Amino acid sequence: MTTKPAAKIILGSRSPRRRELLGSIVGQECLVILPPSSPDEPGFADVSDEAGIERRLIDIVQMKHDDICRQLAAMPGEPIPPFVVVADTIVIASDDNGTRCVLGQPGPERWQDEVRSWFRRWLSGRTHEVWTGVRISHGNQQTQFIVRSKVTFCEVSDELLEWYVATGESTGKAGGYAIQSHAALFVTRFEGSLTSIIGLPLMEVVAGLTKLGWRRDAP
Question: Higher pLDDT residue, 6 or 106?
Answer without folding.
Answer: 106
